[in-house]
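dumping the sequnces here before i forget
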Amino acid sequence: MNQAQLHHLLVANDGIKSKEDQFGIRLYTNLGLIQNLFFSLYPEDLHLEQFQKLVHKLSKLFSARPNFLKEQDLIRVDHVDWYKSNEIVGMQLYVDLFSKNLKGLYDKLDYFEELGVNFLHLMPITTRPKNENDGGYAVNSHTEIDSKYGTRKDLELLTKELRSRKMYLMLDFVANHTSDEHEWAMAAKEGNSKYQKYYYTYADRATPDAFERSLPEVFPETAPGNFTYTPEMGKWVMTVFNSYQWDLNYRNPEVFLEMLENIVALSNMGADVIRLDALAFLWKKMNTTSQNLPEAHVLVTLFRLCLQVVAPGSILLAEAIVAPDEIIKYFGEGNRTGNECEVAYNASLMALLWNSIATKKTGLLYKSLFNMPMKPLPATWINYIRCHDDIGLGLSDRFIQELGWNPKAHRQFLLDYYCQHLDWSPAKGLMFMYNPKTGDGRISGSAASLLGLEKAMENQDKDLAKKAVDKIVMLHGIVLSYGGIPMIYAGDEIGTLNDYSFLEEEDKKEDNRWVNRTERNWDLTDPLQDRNNVQGIVFNRLRKLIATRRKTLAFKDTNNLVVHHSRNPHLFVFERPDGHNRGILVIANFDERPHPLDALLIKQLGYSKSNMAHDLVSDKRRSLQKGNLIIAPYQLFWLKKID
Ligand code: GLC
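..and the predicted 3d for all of it:
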């Protein structure tokens, strides 16, 4: 049981309804744990004062929380697992590219409703440097809205409307770094030693060189090394991402206290989910990779528990694009189970799906999923196929080897397949951050271009275009039914192709992730106007899948995922039982030829009667031919139980 459930138990038993009393209970149920964790990072003999400050801050932050959010907190306490609902479907977007600004977004809310999307992830909207700013992930402020998006008032109006439409909002908390123009960085540059201690700053290369021996590089092509010399300060500062993103020094408890205020401010701005950006990097230690360190987990738990006290209606998403065994730890382990992040990106599933598309086989997908540790009950995934970033090949070398492939050669094959090194491949992607030292590379590109739509359009190849559309729908169908919050990347719902205009822009041309950050041209691509072009077809097919998901209770995530062996190397089969004979069997074919699925499995599980099965995707009855169900190329089935 996590702290949220414990709190629910206490207040439900005693029928406590006052907001202040509930705050008191939350404070007392969490304070012991908060204290232990705080002193484990910041020893009591040195940092008692900061702990006292923290306790005081919790009360202050609660008093400042708007009343309507406190009321919402109470409602959420009664529905602690609200974020696992099958009714939630998300979309991730850059406000400026999608609708110019926040007001424009307000005007597009009907569009989301039409599609069935009710959860919006707005990419960073706070102030940032004018030129290079990593898509807003270099923040000048964690809370001040950048004027190009509008004003605080615009955001308030938007969040009010979202709430009235029962839509959810996710905002980014850039926890690991600030821009070099943030007021703390500016003060540090001016020689202010208090603020220099907010970052990892060094007068000479001795410590940076020692760190470099074990630190990997995130952007080896454009930002090699992990430290940047700052002439104004006459010092080196740690910059793990870009040279203009300064890593915050959480060894300094003042940084934690300041950042706690920032995270609560986001919650007070109406964020239901707070995306903890790059949280694997929060703690740095010599002779380690400084990723996924135990202390980073303690920090995340501290943020979680403090939010649980002050603003329990907001939950945390882990943006940890790391190995599966590491991702799962962000849900919390041991006595912290369920007390870190409620949600994490399912980066493993994402990478495995792209692997299956390229290989047309599901062996690695199965092997990896069968070995995936079970997530705790309070936790859920964000399932997605594309986002604003590159695709990292987070696949297990051991499993690749066990399938009889050479891991290095296999990764090279995937890069070749997606990055236009193989004539026969339909994919049009770009290689991102190839590191010749290690042979590692990642992949940029839009879902549609990676799945062949761009090549199909260029060659006016109708068959290829149909396959691409089927693949787009099938992959989305998998993430819509897998268990967790499905997150559609804006543009993918209309099959948006790569956009090469970034190559003309000085601030963007070195970072080809921009190929998949396209400005929406509503005149050309309003699927609500024309439903017969590719955009309209993709939109409509996804709309139907979404509507079905939202009606299907078995798709609520109760850890009810059962992966079934298909005995066919190209098929992926999993079930979402619901314990009431209303489960769903999901079947997907990753090959360009039809494949049979042995009907015995379908029958044994109760998904057919008299050789008939009912598919919710097409809403048609399907007959089992000679004891098999035939799955067409890139077809998706959602079979429902037949009474
Ligand atoms: C996250 C973001 C990515 C950004 C990085 C640094 O990984 O998704 O776009 O570059 O953090 O903030």
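DSSP finds 23 helices and 23 strands in the chain.
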